[in-house]
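Task 17 of the worksheet. Students: predict the tertiary structure of the chain below and write it out as structure tokens. Keep your answer in the requested format; marks are given for formatting as well as content.
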Amino acid sequence: LQQNGYYRAAYAYDAYGNIVKETYFDQNGGMMLCNAGYASVERKFDSWRNIIRENYYGIDGRLSISAGGYASVYRAFDSQGNVLQESYFGADNEPVLINRCYATVKRAYSAFGKLTMEAYYDGENQLAELPNRYAMVQNEYQGELLIQTTYYGADGQPMIGPYEYATVRYTYNELGLATEEAYFRPDGTSFYC
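Model answer:
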């Protein structure tokens, strides 16, 4: 028995060497569920070999909810291989909420590949707040240096994020070393952190 909860795995590949299907078996050769809650997974790749779709199946060969809480995940990538969007679906192909709050994550990146925005959306494409966190975070860069991070609520307004502030701003010296951090409330007033 492997640490992932199966005795044997079988793999199918596409012409480019990507694993397009994994199937898990018990000690008697029958299909079984791995620790992640599915008996097989099928993947579809884009021309850059990024996984753009994963479908999880039960022993009966039908779409099945994995331990992650979804049966399918769809991804979109930029030309640098960064994930721009990730959407989760149930066995009925309807959006499913991860951690009971979001069905889709959207991201944006700078020219240097730095994350500039990450936002969470519910099944109706409305901003959705993560528990005790935020619905969206935006990072501003000056070249490759992070100069500001701001957390937003589902209403699109700045909110207290996971670190007790809504915005943090960074200042750097001529060598690109951080020399100052300043913290701000949602209304823009500074405070001691």
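Marker's comment: The mean pLDDT is 94. DSSP finds no helices and 13 strands in the chain.
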